[in-house]
Amino acid sequence: SCILGVMTCALCLPLVVLCDKEELSSSQVRVLINATSCSVTCGPGFKLEELCEMGTGGERWGCQLRRSRCLAPWACGLHHSTIPAGNPFQLSCLEPELRDTEDYLYTWRRARGLITTNDVLFQPFHNPGPIVEFSPTQESDAGTYRCDVQMLKTLKVIKRVYFGLRVTQKSLVDINFDKFLTLEQKLAANEELGSMDNST
């Protein structure tokens, strides 16, 4: 057991704790044993950590899983979407699990009618939250949208993502003809292509 010693001096009474060697050897600490990779490839996300109590001899017990935040590289690149006019659509620059937190600040900008990552071409786009909703989508909504996610306390940019949005006219005919062929028509088309290849 620990022996409490009192050292007296003229102006103070400091306390000194002396512990037996056997008691020190039986102490344990909680340490990180394992962790998953970050749930995202860019910006803020989550990871799972395994924490265990560990004795001085290396034995483990009382292990628990804990979810903690992680931060991947800030640059996310350009994401393309093509939407028929009149359909609802939304852009989100943050994972659903992180949208409710008040730790982040969002800044949106738009390059109208262009698919680009040239920051000179972007103009401010007023939207204070992590989501931009189009309901419905209009042809004038086409362009590139840039979202910057910043830490509210430091204003450091921890994520930047570009969304290239193409809006097509609803009256346009779908040019993916294979999508409308029956199985028999697809087999016949493949046989015809095969015979053409053999003849050359």
Automatic annotation (TrEMBL):
It is a single-pass type I membrane protein. GO terms for cellular component: plasma membrane. Keywords: Cell membrane, Disulfide bond, Immunoglobulin domain, Membrane, Signal, Transmembrane, Transmembrane helix. Residues 73-158 form the Ig-like domain. Residues 1-19 form the signal peptide. CDD domains: Ig. Its main location: membrane. Transmembrane segments: none annotated. The keyword Cell membrane applies. It is found in: Cell membrane. It comes from the Eukaryota. The keyword Transmembrane helix applies. Essential fertilization factor required for male fertility. Part of a conserved trimeric sperm complex with the essential fertilization factors IZUMO1 and SPACA6 which bridges sperm and oocyte membranes during fertilization by binding to IZUMO1R/JUNO on the oocyte. PANTHER family: TRANSMEMBRANE PROTEIN 81. This is Transmembrane protein 81. The gene is Tmem81.
